[in-house]
Design a protein that fits this description.
Length: 331
């Protein structure tokens, strides 16, 4: 009896800054589980980062390398997963170009993220073709590897549906089923708040980074906002509106969560002690990543070897797909 072939999964991440706990808990923990059961392709989307950061590329290479170090330190295994950098595989750009010849502009203009980001990011000029057309590049990134599944949250479903529309349009125009339609692999992203109580985000400057040292992590937690009603130590609090308690839900055992819940509401514990408890648990979980990170940083050639091997494996798949595309298009 033969084993069924492993399903293929593809996902990528932009190198827009240092990775933080929101990225780790929201994506990397899912990736680690997926690589145990599937044929995974994970890539650093450095060209995608240019869609909003084209004017300042001074730290792009640094962010790419730091991202890879964080991935491997967090448990992404290059022996189980194919890890590569988008710009190292020129077929991404070629397929993007070919798709761009056949995609209606109206498909791109209706993309919900297009106008949202233009409203949010006022300090940058996003009236560029690259920003309007980034879903076409995204479709090329995905379809080049013909994955069965793409891990997404519910808010990203419209982007994946556009990719499926691109696949259908190509297959219909050229009367050949080159591209299967990838299915969504819905993942539940935990609620990860930053030190100011808003969603953890590089743009808010409220992150706890995977590369932060233990003293930095503890200091950031010390300054984290809590229930605004607890002005004095003797004031009772409400854990459900306290960002620190959200970290207890992630890092502390249920018994500790229950105890904190009770003690906070009765003012039996102060915010300083509450923060120290969650800091201890967070540091305990992050320590192995720090050790792995130190080892990787001390042997930079190891990262180069991994990316070289991953790029070779990815290139074989990408070249085979592009050959099918050229044949279908008769070019």
């Amino acid at each position: 009896m033969t084993n069924a072939p492993r399903k293929r999964v593809l996902s990528g991440m932009q190198p827009s800054g240092l990775m933080h706990l929101g990225n780790y808990l929201g994506a990397l923990e899912n990736w680690k589980l997926l690589q145990e059961q599937h044929d995974c392709f994970f890539f650093v989307a450095d060209w995608h980062a240019l869609s909003t950061n084209y004017a300042d590329t001074s730290r792009l290479k640094e962010f790419v390398r730091e991202l890879l170090i964080d991935w491997f330190a967090a448990g992404i295994d290059p022996k189980r997963s194919t890890v590569f950098i988008q710009s190292h595989i020129p077929e991404h750009a070629v397929l993007h170009l070919l798709f761009s010849m056949m995609i209606p502009v109206s498909w791109l203009e209706r993309n919900p993220t297009y106008k949202e980001k233009q409203e949010e990011i006022k300090e940058k000029d996003l009236s560029t073709y690259g920003f309007l057309g980034y879903p076409v590049l995204q479709a090329a990134d995905i379809l080049l590897y013909k994955p069965d599944f793409v891990p997404v949250g519910k808010d990203q479903l419209p982007h994946l549906e556009l990719t499926r529309e691109v696949a259908r349009r190509f297959n219909d125009i050229y009367k050949k089923s080159v591209f299967p339609e990838p299915k969504e692999y819905l993942t539940k992203f935990p609620k990860v708040l930053g030190t100011d109580g808003r969603k953890m985000s590089k743009s808010y400057g409220n992150t706890i980074n995977l590369s932060d040292t233990e003293p930095v992590v503890r200091q950031k937690l010390k300054t984290m906002v809590t229930d605004p009603a607890r002005v004095r130590r003797t004031d009772p609090g409400n854990p459900e509106v306290c960002p620190v308690y959200e970290f207890h839900k992630i890092y502390s055992p249920q018994a500790v969560q229950d105890q904190i819940n009770t003690d906070c509401r009765t003012a039996a514990i102060g915010c300083i002690d509450c923060k120290k408890q969650v800091a201890d648990k967070m540091v305990e979980r992050m320590a192995p990543m720090w050790d792995a990170r130190a080892a990787l940083t001390s042997t930079p050639s190891r990262i180069d070897e991994i990316i070289h091997d991953g790029s070779e494996r990815a290139a074989k798949v990408a070249k085979a797909t592009l050959a099918e595309v050229n044949e279908a298009m008769k070019i």
